[in-house]
Amino acid sequence: MTPFPVHDAPEALTIVQHLKAQTPFADACSAMQGQTSSQLLAIALPPGLYQGLQDAAIQAIEAHGLHGWLSAEGRYDDHNYQSLSLVHNPDMHDPGVHDVHQATLGTSMNPISEFYYNSVERHRTLKNTYFDSYGFRVRTPAARLGALGSFLDQCGLTLIRSRLSVLIGKRGITADFMDGWHRDEPVFENLRLNIPLTSDPAYRLQIEHAKDTPQADSDTMTEHFLAPGHAYTFNTNIPHRVYVKEPSNTPRIHLVLGFAPWFDHDAQRDSWQANRHFGTTHPFDLLRGGMLHPDLKAST
Questions:
Q1: What is the CATH number for 261?
Q2: Does residue 298 fall inside a structural domain?
Q3: What is the sign, positive or negative, of the torsion defined by CA atoms of 6, 12, 18, 20?
Q4: pLDDT digits (tens, 9 = 90+) for 147-182
Q5: How far apart are the first and last CA of the chain?
Q6: CA–CA separation, 25 and 134 (whole Å)
Q7: Residues near 154 by Cβ (< 8 Å), separated by ≥ 6?
Q8: Which of 56, 84, 187, 296 could bond 101 through an S-S bridge, CB–CB 3.0 to 4.6 Å?
């Protein structure tokens, strides 16, 4: 398979845009689009793995702290949603990013109102920006701790934009219905895995399955409590958000992991290439079949 060195990718494009232009990516996606579901897929974690990931997350927070979302208005360190990055881009230079554990948490170029549609108009180039998901290819120190480090070492897909996120219920409920809504990349670009480590029914995930703009009274919106002890995925390219429905003294600590399903990164050569799953296996089936991680496999 042809390697595509990172340094050869044009500045105007994100790395994945460059990879898509050099491969039959669009046709491969079209052939499998019918298998993409907006419904939640849940896979139980082995108890030992769950406990190990929980311990590693606490260790990571104690060692590296939590950080607010970055926008043109500044970093929201007082918001009830705080995170730390698990990957970084060694070539990204944002004046608002002072620690690799802040790398995937927004950009100083965009006002907070422009993240829902991932607006990129303010950026003259896209490579090595917040929007360059495949640029986030180097694990941070937090992502090498304990059972989390071992888990990620054993994953069969390349980790890209990922974070450990904490929703702090004791800071109050989410009063604004539009707070937190966003859309992520298509699942063929980024297979996102959400692993709750501590939680409470006060914290909810909302998914808008049909409408482009979320509405509080929508009959196509569903609400879910993601219970610890499972890993979840769904089509995160549709509108969704997490919010605090009622106050809670228990923080919601989740791993929000992104994986490149059809491309692998060669760290030694710093290049990307299509992998054996390209165009043949839907990303959801990679998870179901244990190809993302041998301990994560759907029961038959």
A1: 2.60.120
A2: no
A3: positive
A4: 999 999 999 999 999 999 999 999 989 999 998 899
A5: 33
A6: 15
A7: 293, 294, 295
A8: 84
